[in-house]
Amino acid sequence: MPAGSIEEGLSQAKEIIGKYPREQRFLLAALQDIQKHYNYLPREALALVQEHFSVPMSRLYSMATFYKALTLKPKGKYVIKVCDGTACHIRGSSLLVEELQRLLRIAPGETTTDGKFSLETVNCLGSCAIAPVMVINDQYYGRVTTAAVGKILEDLEAKE
Amino acid sequence: MLMFKRKPVKTVLVCCGTGCLANNSRAIYEGLKKRIEESGARASIRPVTKATGCNGLCERGPIVKIQPDDIFYCGVKATDVDEIFERSVLNDEIITRLLYLDSSTGERVKSHRDTEFYKRQHKIALRNIGEIDPASIDDYIERDGYRALEKVLTTMSPQEVIDEIEKSGLRGRGGAGFPTGVKWKQCARVDVFPKYVVCNGDEGDPGAFMDRSIMEGDPHSVIEGMLICAYAIGAERGFIYIRDEYALALKNMAAALEEARKRGFLGRNILQKGMNFDIEIVRGGGAFVCGESTALMASIEGRVGEPRVKYIRSVERGLWDKPTVLNNVETWANVPVIINRGAQWFRSIGSEGSPGTKVFSLVGKVKNTGLIEVPMGITLREIIFSIGGGIPRDREFKAVQTGGPSGGCIPKELLDLPVDFDSLTESGSMMGSGGMIVMDETTCMVEVARYYLQFLAEESCGKCVPCREGIKQMLGILEDICAGRGREGDIELLLDIGATLQEAALCGLGKTAPNPVLSTIRYFREEYREHIQNKYCPAGVCKELTVFYIDQEACRGCGLCAQKCPLGAISGERRRTYTIDETKCIKCGQCRDTCRFGAVKNRGRRHDNNH
Fold first, then answer.
1. Are residues B408 and B381 in the same domain?
2. By the CB < 8 Å criterion, does B406 face chain A?
3. Between chains, do A67 and B285 touch, taking CB under 8 Å as contact?
4. Residue A1: its pLDDT value, please?
5. Is residue A41 in some structural domain?
6. Domain for residue B35, yes or no?
7. Which residues of A touch B (CB under 8 A)?
8. Residue B596 CB: number of other CB atoms within 10 A?
9. Rounded CA gap, B40 and B59, in Å?
10. Residues paired with residue B66 on neighbouring β-strands, in sequence order
11. What is the mean pLDDT of chain B?
12. Which chain A residue is nearest to residue B436, measuring alpha carbons?
């Protein structure tokens, strides 16, 4: 699913927010939906949320920085999540992260300058039986080796 | 489409849990379904959606079962579809090569019930998973679903329900093991309304996926459990808090709620008995601390998920300050069975202090990784060596980690420890939600402690000082030890800070945060000393304290290590011996994992001078 861009305007954000009653308990859900659509929380969309739920902007920032699912910076087209849950960790997930860092020249939490790849580590994807696990957008890769990482990236590049 | 009206003779169950899906089980499902539809054969394919390993062995997935013949195929590929259809669906033949291979006897086993992996299991919470289509409420009803609800609404008073649960001795499966019946009783006593029923599906422990597979594979059992509690305490609204990462669980749970509403199990005047109750799903925001009950409630209210001090318990003032019962997914799934079969029956399973079963995710350095449900009181040895099949490559077992970041590591001396709430706590670990991570000789216990502390440092909500600062300081010390900067007195300092956290942190997560460190010091102090004094990591994990070399005596010159080395740091001649160029080596350990002769060894940094 291609992420929406802020240039498209904020009609999508308005639509998302409009689905929710003006009650505080829907705040997190609304932010998650915006995150899903834009791949991050654009400042302009947060302004709309602020207005809709009548909460101060500081509150939205505290939510955005507290919950891992929310980010204030745009993410890449391909979000690479390397699981660093315990099972993956003891089966060598940190080596995968190192290999990706070497190949993409970005640290976890960063995005390549061409906006193509974001690298993240996550705590557990619950697929411990096929550890170590890596997820790119919605595709799961099980029992990944350092050698396989390069191949997976090449395949993605080739798709471009 | 007449053929669908006939009663199906054979049922083909294809595991579509996250783990099997990663191995392309969807294509197998689609393929078999298509073949059966086209041919009009007297069989129906039922898509079974289950989580990794809960069909037993994601390790050997994708898994296909054929009923009523009770055939269990594993490691199925899309190219096997035609053969399965022709031989085992249309005819009653068994494809031997797809059957489970018992590694200890070398024999093929037809039914999953006869495999080492399943033989010792006892399924209560997982009773339906792998047997039903989670999208079909009829499948659930067929297996006694919603019968417990009907029973309580027609024949039991709320007090009788509470008494039954209390008598059963059911303890909360989320971690601490608080008696469920007592919790319900306390909440029922409070004369404040509305009351709420909450399901904690924010499974955040790394290495655990029990709750996910229940929500994915049998969502109605959770809904029914919550309904029974709602009746007992007089609640009209419930919430299920699910991790946002669990896409399939969210989808299946939402569909199940919708179905239950349509059939009159949720909503107003349930089963025409005048009961009103409905459930909403709340998506988690990806914060570990939200698994703590008060933080979870704050998150449902749309706030930052910080825990509060529990002077007043949630059963009196929980969600929106109203009386609330919060239980974990697995606890809820146990409730309908207890009502149907009675407290006495439940007490007959498991141990005196911990009746019933517990679901574990058995992962890490173990042959049969997967989801298992065993009676309480079973020993760790049985779980790891009989069900789990032992350690891959016949390496040596070192420890098993239970209880997630709040738990600890249990060494091989305690392998005969019975697994229940009390004995695990005594050992310095805890039951936790059910993650069981097996570690072998190539796992460094100091690094494992560092790993958990790093996790906890990131996840600490920062509200109370002992947790926020204490974890950070402990992490710093552990990082130093792993990097070869360990100093005399570090162990004592870790123990000291750890004790402070246990005393002074605000919530359960902070109080238990030092457990991974304290338990590894308790059982593996020698390994800490090696790191600090000898600058040597016996497991060969801490890179600064590891120097791999090839034992020239043991090397047979096969050259596999040189092929595997991602940096080309290994050179030599076939049939002679190989050597590692230490300046190029990144210490990934691939060579050691590859070598079949145990020739790749670690001499650590301590020998650098006499090298």
1. yes
2. no
3. yes
4. 38
5. yes
6. yes
7. 23-29, 32, 62-63, 66-70, 84-87, 89-92, 95, 98-99, 122-131, 133, 138, 140-142, 146-147
8. 10
9. 33
10. B12, B71
11. 89
12. A87
| B365 and B333 fall within a common domain | no
CB A138 within 8 A of CB A127: no
For residue B586, pLDDT over 90 is answered with: no
Same-domain pairing of B159 and B266: yes
Indicate the helix (H) or strand (E) that contains B44: strand B43-48
Residue B458: pLDDT band with limits 50, 70, 90: confident
- Judgement on whether residues B64 and B92 belong to the same structural domain of the protein: yes
Look up the domain containing A61 and give its range: 6-66
Count of H helices and E strands in chain A?
7, 4
Do residues A47 and A25 share a domain? Answer: yes
Closest Cα in chain B, distance from residue A51 (Å): 16
Subunit contact A127:B18, Cβ cutoff 8 A: yes
| Residue after which a domain boundary falls, among B347, B375, B407 | B347
Q: Do A22 and A61 belong to one domain?
A: yes
Q: What is the pTM of this model?
A: 0.88
CATH number of the domain where residue A97 is located: 3.40.30.10
Q: B439 and A90 in contact by Cβ < 8 A?
A: yes
The pLDDT tens digits for B206-242 are 778 889 889 988 999 999 999 999 999 999 999 999 9
CB A70 within 8 A of CB A63: yes
- Tell me which of B25, B52, B205 to substitute to probe the interface with A (most A C-beta atoms closer than 10 Å): B52
Distance CA B62, CA B53 (A): 10
Tokens linked to B499: 């004790």
pLDDT of residue B588: 83
Residues A38 and A98 in one domain: no
Q: Which residue has the tokens 């650590």?
A: B604
Mutation for testing the B interface, residue in A54, A128, A145, A149 having most B CBs under 10 Å: A128
Residue B608 lies in a domain: no
| A55 within domain boundaries | yes
Q: Where are the beta strands (DSSP E) in B80-213?
A: 100-101, 108-109, 196-201
- Strand B548-550 versus strand B600-602 pairing type: antiparallel
CATH number of residue B52's parent domain? 3.40.30.10
CB contact (8 A) between residue B57 and residue A129: yes
Across the range B404-428, mean pLDDT stands at 90
Q: Is residue B129 part of a domain?
A: no
Worst-scoring range by mean pLDDT, B144-158, B400-414, B594-608?
Answer: B594-608
Which CATH number goes with the domain that contains B416?
A: 3.10.20.600
**Mean pLDDT on B429-455:** 91
Last residue of one domain, picked from the residues B118, B149, B178? B118
Q: Are residues B16 and B100 in the same domain?
A: yes
pLDDT in tens, A40-92: 999 999 999 999 999 999 999 999 998 988 999 888 889 999 998 888 888 88
Domain boundary among A19, A43, A66: A66
Task: Check CB contact under 8 Å for A68 and B286.
Answer: yes
Residues B246 and B372 in one domain: no
ipTM over 0.90: no
Shared domain for A95 and A45, answered yes or no, is: no
Answer for the pair B70, B117: CB distance below 8 angstroms, yes or no: no
- Asked if the Cβ–Cβ distance from B364 to A87 is below 8 Å, we say yes
The reply to whether B466 and B503 lie within a common domain is yes
Identity of the residue in B212, B288, B443 whose CB atom sits nearest the CB atom of A90: B443
Rounded CA-CA distance B297/B323 in Å is 12
Residues of B in contact with A126 (CB under 8 A): 18, 51-52, 203, 208-209, 212, 245-246
- Output the pLDDT for position B52: 35
Picking from B435, B8, B412, B395, the residue whose alpha carbon sits closest to that of residue B205 is: B435
Q: How far apart are the first and last CA of chain A?
A: 15
The pLDDT, as a whole number, for residue B205 is 79
How many domains does one find in chain A?
A: 2
Average pLDDT, chain A: 87
What is the domain extent for residue B488?
445-533
Please tell me whether residues A94 and A142 are part of one structural domain.
yes
In chain B, count of helices (H) and strands (E)? 23, 20
Question: How many structural domains are present in chain B?
Answer: 5
